[in-house]
Amino acid sequence: MLQRSFYERPVIQVARELIGCYLVREIDGEKLIGKIVETEAYAGPLDRAAHSYSNCPTERTKAMFQEAGHAYIYEMHTHALLNVVTGRVGQPHGVLIRAVEPIAGLEIIEQNRATVKRQIDWTNGPGKLTKAFNITKELYGHSLNESPLYIEDSERFVDIARSPRVGIANSGQAAHYPWRFFERNNAYVSAFRK
């Protein structure tokens, strides 16, 4: 399990180094495991695309101001999206987990995505992976250092690429920040759309 010190570092470094790590969700004694293959960094008050850009905690963003290593989960278009809080307390930076490659618990993942025909589409987007892993707003503020949701250490020698973030609109220059990281040539990376 990754220690809090991993998350206490700069958000862009954490976003890059989460690639190849394993997202683990425990449900009824079963472990659902996915290799993280895509992330995006959001640098709080410096970043117009971040929910915490105003640097003022709200009911929605209060988890972003907690200690590093907590889950910040929000809903967008009926999808829950999982973010990892990074940096120091009161420094509201976070990493969006955009895609994972399913590794274990495939039967449960398949049940959770029963309406999706192709396995490749189970977890190749931020809303898809939370449905597959049954990650809901009930886990908002959860410490990612303990069950039932945590992240384990990474594979070594993952070929990592970077690009601008996906779907950032009306954010001025923030739309062009190259703060999206992904495993090169991994089929579970979401399709890039400007």
UniProtKB/TrEMBL annotation:
Its EC number is 3.2.2.-. CDD domains: AAG. Pfam families: Pur_DNA_glyco. One of its GO terms (molecular function) is hydrolase activity, acting on glycosyl bonds. It is an enzyme of class 3 (hydrolase). SUPFAM superfamilies: FMT C-terminal domain-like. Transmembrane segments: none annotated. Keywords: DNA damage, DNA repair, Glycosidase, Hydrolase. InterPro entries: Formyl_transferase-like_C_sf, MPG, MPG_sf. NCBIfam families: 3mg, PRK00802.1-2. Belongs to the DNA glycosylase MPG family. This is Putative 3-methyladenine DNA glycosylase.
